[in-house]
Amino acid sequence: MVANAAFGLMLFDLLIHFLMLSLLATGGAISLAPEMHRYMVSETGLLTDAQFTSSIAIAQSAPGPNILFVTVLGWQAMGPWGAFATTVGVMAPSAVLTLMVNRLSLSRSDTVWMRALREGLAPVVIALMLATAWILSESWWGEIGVLALVVITAMLTVVTRIAPVLLIAAGAVIGGLGLLG
């Protein structure tokens, strides 16, 4: 019974720690790796240094989102419950914040500050898409097809109401079929 209580308390502490960390994750969860290391290796001893490093390496080499390393760290530390705690801890605050902002923006879509926010963020989103295109196709800039795809995507983003995720998916299909190279 004591072992179960200790496990539960440690699991709760892990969840709370990752919830707090998620609120600091500017630049993605990987920017929090040093603090995760301090907490999981130095402070609590849940992982060894080698386990921590290999968990990140395994997750980064696997296909899927980069955030998977958090799940692998939790799994290594405390099994399936640890994976659940670390993943929920990192993902829940940003998901809840996004839902709250979305509800607020829908209920007050005609206010001056909401229009200003949308119009102010539009150039930021376009710039981030262009920066992503630059990074992902850095070695292919000599190819006119990639340049054309980037320009067309940027223009469609500005001129139409097509969801950016659909444009990204179209680019993935075009690239996957090898139509540009």
What characteristics describe this protein?
181 residues, mainly alpha, 2 domains, 7 helices, 0% strand
Verbal overview:
77% of the residues lie in helices and 0% in strands. It is mainly α. The protein has two domains: 2-104; 109-176, no CATH class. Helix 1 (2-22) crosses helix 4, helix 3 packs across helix 4 and helix 6 packs antiparallel against helix 7 (164-176). The model has no long low-confidence stretch (mean pLDDT 82).
Summarize the structure.
The protein is mainly α and 181 residues long.
What fraction of the residues are assigned to beta strands by DSSP?
under 5%
Provide the gyration radius in Å.
21 Å
Mean pLDDT: 82
Largest sheet: none
The helicity comes to over 70%
Element order, helices and strands?
Answer: HHHHHHH
The best one-word shape is: globular
Number of domains: 2
Please tally the helical runs, counting DSSP H or I stretches of 4 or more residues.
7
The helix/strand class is mainly alpha
Count of distinct strands: 0
Flag low-confidence runs.
none
The N- and C-terminal alpha carbons lie at a distance of 62 Å
What does the secondary structure layout of this molecule look like, with pairings?
Layout: H1 2-22, H2 33-43, H3 49-61, H4 68-107, H5 112-136, H6 144-159, H7 164-176
Helix pairs in contact: 1-4, 3-4, 5-6, 6-7
